[in-house]
Amino acid sequence: MTLIDLANPTRFLSLTAKVLPWLAGATAVLLIVGLYQSAMAPDDYQQGATVKIMFIHVPNAWLAMFVWGIMSVAALGTLVWRHPLADVAAKAAAPIGAAFTFLALVTGSLWGRPMWGTYWEWDARLTSVLILFLMYLGLMALWRAVEDPSRAARAAAILTLVGAINLPIIKFSVDWWNTLHQPASVMRMGGSSLDRAFLVPLLVMAIAFSLLFITLHLAAMRNEILRRRIRTLQMMQAGRPTV
Amino acid sequence: MTALTALIRRDLHVALRVGGGALIGVLFFLTVVVLMPFAVGPDLALLKRLGPAILWLGALLASLLTLDRLFTADHDDGSLDLIVMSRTPLELACAAKALAHWLAAGVPLIVATPVLGLLLNLDGAATLAVALTLLAGTPALTLTGMIGAALAVTMHRGGLLLAVLVLPLSIPVLIFGVAASNAAISGADAFGAPFSILCALSLASLVIGPVAAAASLRHGLD
Predict the structure, then answer these.
(1) Angle at CA A161, nearest 5°, toward B209 and B178?
(2) Does residue B125 register a pLDDT over 50?
(3) Count of A–B CB contacts within 8 Å?
């Protein structure tokens, strides 16, 4: 089973139909376990119960960037390998990535209100995530600007790759500009600075959210394939000479 | 080489003669700067502090306004198809078009900066610093904007889509442009670091811009 075998949409549909219930089930189980562990995690000595927002916030922020990475790979698939499902994957991922980015911003600002005393601060991390959100929206606008999906796909692929080059630049430029957000604490040199009581639920939640993304993404790809089939059928119907 | 020179000369002629509208950008720049005192109040001390930011924002919006013309007119009269089909590499043709566009629409903005600096109560050294950073930064704006212009022309609808695509990409240029200007004016921070990064951004977009624009023209036009 390679990526090329999945190029046939019918085979993709039948495979995902088998896989999706299991993925959805695993996601639900992990989310329940993760949320239970998060709720049972001790309060932080400084932050109190608000530390639990982190269990939602951090996986969302990770996925916000991860989804752009997935879309960049899909963009390469569209432009270089001409994989037939690459543009379906890219198109389906954009709204999901935008949603994760939005949730990361909202949960972050809900945490910021009691901790920093403000919902919004023009801090480097916050600003670069906000720009990431704007770029997701711009990409979605580009997808919606053209009727023909394959032409929209190539334009969106180029914008995705330009964004992939630009996002690190934006990140470093705003880092330099203004900063307040804490630096990375889970993955860093010399091991995590988090206590196990916080680290375990966080990792469970991260896996749960990643599975949630894969589930939603595969489901959205199925919908997109079906939508394109309906579009083709409608166009064939419209092109048929009337009696 | 002769083809590229001819392309630059032609684009300059088209932009500067009647109906070209390259100088509309300068007029827009002037209008934006004149609008600012109405919004923030005619407080000269405040305007002096905001001056570099206002000038940079005005230049950014003015260059965005004229970007639409980079490919649209050529697409409408069919010469863009000739450029795409010609034996000259499309990447070089895009770079030549960007150079012509920058000469016609970007340089006038820099030339206008001293006059506008006067309106914002900036002294000579500050105005010079802003003009210098604009000189280093506007090529990056044109070259990254060209990607958006190429995408928009293949979509047959420029305007708002172009702005939505291009503005997020221009944030680093804005940050370092204003940072370098302010560093030169206040003298508190080093001028060299942000200015070098600004030049680096221009050079990097000189590589990325033409390649991405050419790719999107090649894939997008039918």
Answers:
(1) 55
(2) yes
(3) 71
